[in-house]
Amino acid sequence: MPAPQCASCHAARAALRRPRSGQALCGACFCAAFEAEVLHTVLAGRLLPPGAVVAVGASGGKDSTVLAHVLRELAPRLGVSLRLVAVDEGIGGYRDAALAAVRRQAARWDLPLTVVAYADLFGGWTMDARAPPSTFPLMGPNRPADSSGASL
Ligand SMILES: [Zn+2]
């Protein structure tokens, strides 16, 4: 069964159905609707005053990647500037790949990036030094490589 036609542009096939509205949209129309909703939310809630410098916590995962991307798209209309901030907890085999993804995002989007490392803040203390990797079964060397480092 072919995908339905996009309910917004009526020109492309729908790529998804929005759970709340049930509306079937193509990728371009979904992105436009999502950005419009974020813009409305930020403006209605007066969340980011014009002139603000907004630090986006960037983990390299999908959530912070989407947040940084949409705020970057909206920054000119909001009158704000962005920068990325990432935390290196010192978890070997986990954070390195995600930080590499954040560095690629910062370079691609031409955004300033600050990486704050536990080792620098806490005199060499890292998560690995504090607790063995088996303490955090979802992190560390056993975590699948494809579960971190999202990109757009
Ligand atoms: Zn469309």
TrEMBL record:
Query: What's the domain of life for this entry?
Result: Eukaryota
Query: What GO terms are given for molecular function?
Result: transferase activity; tRNA binding
Which UniProt keywords are given for this protein, alphabetically ordered? Transferase
Tell me which GO cellular component terms the UniProt record holds.
cytosolic tRNA wobble base thiouridylase complex; mitochondrion
Looking up Gene3D superfamilies in the UniProt record yields: HUPs
InterPro entries in the record: Rossmann-like_a/b/a_fold
Biological process per Gene Ontology, one example term: tRNA wobble position uridine thiolation
Protein's name according to its UniProt entry: Cytoplasmic trna 2-thiolation
